[in-house]
Amino acid sequence: MARTRVGAMKFGDRRLAACEGAILAHSVDLDGTRLAKGRLLSAADLDAARQAGRERLTVAEPSPADLREDDAASLITSALSGSGLDARPPANGRVDLVARTRGLLCLDPRVIDRVNRIGEAIGLATLPAFATVEAGEICATLKIVPFAVRAAAAQRAAKAASVQPLTVEPFRALSADLIHTQGENPTPKLEAKTAAVTRTRLEALGGRLTSERAVPHKVDSLGDALAEAGSDLVLVAGVSATTDRRDVVPAAIRKSGGTVLRLGMPVDPGNLLLLARRGAQWIVGLPGCARSPKRNGFDMVLERLFAGLPVSSRDIAALGAGGLLKGSERPSR
User: Fold this and answer.
1) How many domains, the chain?
2) Are residue 7 and residue 140 in the same domain, yes or no?
3) How many CA atoms lie within 13 A of 79 on its CB side?
4) What is the average pLDDT value for the chain, to the nearest integer?
5) Is 329 among the domain residues?
6) CATH number of the CATH domain containing 276
7) Which residues form the MoaB/Mog domain (predicted)?
8) Nearest to 275 by CA among 289, 258, 291
9) Are residues 236 and 291 in the same domain?
10) Interval 153-170: pLDDT, tens
11) What kind and span of H or E run contains 43?
12) Quick check: is 326 in a domain?
């Protein structure tokens, strides 16, 4: 009998007399009775095979140093699954991790890579980092390819996964104030469109727009309006784009006691976003593309804020890979 080895597991074609207690490698039909692959063969199974005219079967036989596929998958996903995720029961060497609630999937791609580099017998696939997920949605799936894997390899994979487990951070019900700035010729229709689009964005994440006002596009006027805003978020829709930290919007933020954390982001559309903070309150200077319902850089920041994640200049700088958004409207500047 020709055999190949995956780790210490034996695999090959055997006479029926040597198959009891082994794992059936390929499904077989026995006069209307189907034995599914992965089945632990019993004496009764082998009698049925003989009566159907079979003399040999292809089987796998793990060694004491191996873990069966379901046990290995459960071990690794137990270490991988963090808050907001539930593991489905293992089946055929696969365990799916599903979101317990609507929120943002948080993971470190380097951890996923380390698990997959343990060996070809272990395959872990996930949704992208910071994907928005719904309750019950599959966020990750782990598959053990052979019928068994070395226990030591599964343990190394579990240790690698435990460094930073996957989590789903639920969206919080945040409130937001929207401030428009106006030039010499106000644009009420544009302001109404911006408010409607913004309200829809906030409500999609479980938030609400609590107030809306318009002030002149001047440092003192906007600074006073920012100082009076009391919601969790303050969104500023400037009449003109902010392209310098000395411009009206960042200057007004500083006047109100806030700190500008970042002006500009490596996401297109969305390059001209401004992020600031005043105490526990976040302030976002909206890029022009935020007036459109199409996805842009503002959505990426807003989702993280609603999920309660810290957003720093460094975090925004890391958005460049994948930051060129397909199918979105691109600004002229």
Assistant:
1) 3
2) no
3) 21
4) 95
5) no
6) 3.40.980.10
7) 194-294
8) 258
9) yes
10) 999 999 999 999 999 999
11) helix 43-51
12) no
